[in-house]
Every structure is written in structure tokens, then in C-alpha cells.
Amino acid sequence: VAGLASSPALVFGFGPSSALGSSPTTHRTTTASSSLFSSRPPNTFNPFRMVGDMASGLFGSEKLEAQPGLETALARLASLPSWDAIRSDLESKMETPQEINFRSNLEKGYGVASPLHKIRLYDESNKEENIRVKFYRDSASWCPYCQKVWLMLEEKKIPYTVEKINMRCYGDKPNSFMRIQPNGAIPVAEIDGRVYGQSNDIMFTLEELFTPEKGGHKSLSPPPNQQDNANDLLRLERELFSGWMYWLTGGGEQSKRGFIQVLKKVETALSKNGPFFMGDSVTLVDFMYASFLERMAASLLYFKGFMIRVPPGEKTDFPAVNKWFDAMETLESYQLTKSDYYTHAFDLPPQLGGCRYEPGCEPYEKAINGERSLDGTQGSWELPLQPHNGGIEPDWTWAAPTEAFAQREAVERVTANHAAIVKFACRGAGQKGVPPVMAPLSDPNAVPSDVVQPAVDACLRMVLQALLDGAKEKDEVMIQLAKSIVSEGGKDFASGVIDSLAYLRDRVGVPRDMKLPAARQLRAHLNWAIGKLLDAADA
């Protein structure tokens, strides 16, 4: 997703990423209301069902007019909270040191790792002037090759600074980066003043220079007597990768059988050692597998209907692979870099030139992209959220001990940069950017609609207050707000507001903007607001 790519200081990412960076040949269009309202009876009023490709420019700003009476109507809603009031309410409800100290730790480079860190010192024992590594990674916090290096830096607790660079399909790379990496590829690392431009080279250099003897850094090398086994596993990883690519981008029974055959070899290898590839401790071998096993689990479910990872207690043909995922999720380094199925499903096509759908995938596709739960009873981004997204993606219980914790995380990320986020959302009612970039839903040059901004701002404030207090507690206020938007602005205007909320909803990236539990809560509460607007328009 392209967010506010031109504003590198933004806190709520929305940089070039790809929660929705799909290719038109692979992305099946949905509507603003599909996450919640695909079961609603049809009526004659279609614009609210027409977010189409969810790109900007569906309702050009020239088609919407300013509504001077709306701001007066909004001012009369006494229960509509201010941004300062929401932030104050959030801070009064924070419970853990991680939440309370999040912003100060970001600035200092301390605390629990976050994609928003631009410097990593871990704690007071490390000093900025002693940093030896500068890490160039993607702005989207998604690149699989960057993830491998990122995992290693964090697991070894190597201090580093971060420079974020666009992936090629989301926009141009800065000249300063091209001077040190002429081919533009990421990741890149400057280590002790020397430039390394390939992920494997970076990883092995880090392992060689930052050792238990040289700074007390954790060793990730396989045991000396297991080098041959490690090499065999690395060759198996390449075989697995090739099988995945062949099936994902091509399809057919032969490629499916080939992939499953290799995955069974991986299952056997893990069942002999486990939970990690080399036994009880994580090594470089695990990090070589991590990025693509994670993407396999997401993409093969979305495009092929093939499930690798299952919720706790469910039967699977790959129990050792599932135990490996469980073990990886105990690592703070992996918790930092892990993405969700939705982000993966829409990030992969523009990188690969397209992914091929196969019969049987549609229920999983709809559940992952927010349209419909697997059991068909509700939207998968509809309140109340089903555990494990209805049985297709295990909940990240390690990321949020309670639902309220996840909701507060969502509120924190938005309130910290609300003005830019509101403006970003208004691209949904604005105009597409020129020139376009390769990923059609990444649109860093889009022009937001200023006309809908006051209404979008008000709706987003209600969404955040509902996250803090509960949607049921705020139903009546949101209904009043929705009625005011429709009565004062008209249905076309309200349509632009809905498009803007949907544009934002569909571009929440994991882990770039927040962890999955928080992202699910924000997406569902945005749908709650969209639902009230649709009801007001239908009345």
C-alpha cells in the first residue's frame, strides 16, 4: 500500500507497502461494505457498494462540493470527542510499561522492538556513537530478504540505525541510496563502513563480526558437528522455495503434488530435531526458512485453499511445521517482523507478476480479505471478531494479552499522527496520482479530497473512541454522526466519506503500522462506522 510516502516522518506508517499492493490481474474487487454487508438486501442506491478496486479517484474531488452546514452540524454533536480528549483517555487506560513508555522508547531506541524504531540500542548499556551497522530496509516492513537480516540483528541484539527505502514497485528509490547500491536492491547494510548488498552476505558477516567473544552477542551458527546437516537443510529450503513459486504462479495438480512432497521433507526434518531446524535453539537455518515459510502459509491458503498453519488443537498433516511456527513466535525478533495473511496476499502479486487462483480458494480468500467468515455467518472484519479469524489464521495471543490491549495499540498508532492519517484516508474520495506506480493500489502521488476531510476526521474520532469504550456504547453517537453527514452532505458526499474510511481500512499494514490483533480491531471498527453510514443513507 502506498501511504504517505512523501512524509518520511510519519508515525502511523502508511509508507509504500502493500496491505493492498495487488495486480489487477489477480485482485478480485470488493466493495466498501463487503466486509459486513454482503448479506444486506439489494436496493437502488449503489454508490455505497462501489469502492471497486479500492484505489483513489473513484469519486474525483470535482464531483463533491463543500458542505458548509456540515461543520456546524458536527459542532452540535456534544458527544463527539476531540483528538486531545481521545489521547488523554487512551493514556489513562494504559496498563503496561510497554504501552506507557512506547513513544519515549522509540526515540531512544530502547524497549520492545517496533517497525517504527529508526535506531536500536535495546537499553542504556549501548551508546549511539558506538553503532557499527546501518540497515537499509523496505518502508513497507514486508520485504522477505530484509526480514532475514532484521531477524538476525534483533536476535543477536546488534545496535543499528535504520534507513527505509521503497521497494521498486511502490515508487522510486532516492539517489543517495542508488549511489551505494546501483542495482537498487534491498536489503543493504553498512557494517564498519563497508557496504554489503545481499541478504546472505549481510547475515554471515553479522555472524562473523558480532560473536559471544566480541561483544557478548548470541551465536546463531549451527553446532560444528552439524554443518553437513545445516547445508542439507539450506538446500532443502531452496527446493521448497522453488516448489512454492512453481505452484503459486503456475498452478495445476503436478505443481501441487511437487510442493507437498517437498513440504513433507521439511516436516520430516523438523520432526527429527524440533522445535527448530537444528534442535532446541534457533539458528541461521531457521532465519533462512522463516520469511518464505510464513509467506507460503498465507499465499497458498489465499490463492489455492491449501492450509499449512492451523489454530491450536486442530488436526494437521504438518504438526512439526506448526510447532516450528509456535517456537518462532516465542522470539521477540520474529514477533517484530511477522506479517499477517492479508498483507502477504496483497504484497506478493506485484513482486511476482501475479499469483494464480485455483478452485476451492474462494472461501479462504474472502475470509482473509475481510469479505466473509469461513462459516458464512458474518463479515470476517465484523464485530464481534471470531477467534482465529474463523479458523483460518491463528490468533496472535503473544502480541496482545487482552482484546483491550490490542484496541489501545490501534488507538495509540492513529492518534500519534492523526492529521496525516485523515488526509491519507481522503485519497479514497480524491484523484489518482500521476504518474502511477507499478502496484496500482500504491499511489504516493494521489490527491486527497479536502471536501470530505472534516467528516472523515469526525468518523475516525468516533472509531477510536469506540475502540476505547466499546462500539455498543458509541452506537447512538455514530448513528447521529452518520445521519448528519447524509442529511447535510447528501448521498454522493456520504459515499466519498465511506470510500475514504474503506481506503484506510484496506491499507492497514502488518507489522508496519501495528500488530495483527490491533489491525483486526481497527479494520472491524472502521466497518462499524461504514455500516452506520450505509444505514443512514438507506433510511
Estimate the helix proportion, in percent.
40-55%
Biggest sheet, in brief? Answer: 5 strands, mixed
Structural class, by secondary structure, is mainly alpha
Q: What is the average of the pLDDT values?
A: 87
> What is the tally of beta strands?
5
Count of runs of 4 or more consecutive helical residues? 22
* Sequence stretches where pLDDT stays below 50 over 5 or more residues: 1-62
SSE blueprint:
Layout: H1 34-37, H2 68-75, H3 83-93, H4 97-100, H5 102-108, E1 119-120, E2 133-138, H6 144-156, E3 160-165, H7 175-180, E4 188-191, E5 194-196, H8 199-209, H9 227-249, H10 253-272, H11 284-304, H12 319-328, H13 332-337, H14 341-352, H15 362-368, H16 388-391, H17 403-415, H18 418-425, H19 453-469, H20 471-489, H21 491-505, H22 516-538
Parallel strand pairs: 2-3
Antiparallel strand pairs: 1-3, 2-4, 4-5
Describe this structure in words.
It contains 22 helices and 5 strands. It is mainly α. The protein has a 5-stranded mixed β-sheet. Helix 6 (144-156) links the parallel strand 2 (133-138) and strand 3 (160-165). Helix 19 (453-469) packs antiparallel against helix 20 (471-489), helix 19 packs across helix 21 and helix 20 (471-489) crosses helix 21. It starts with 33 loop residues before the first helix and ends with a helix. 50% of the residues are buried. The model is unreliable at 1-62 (pLDDT under 50).
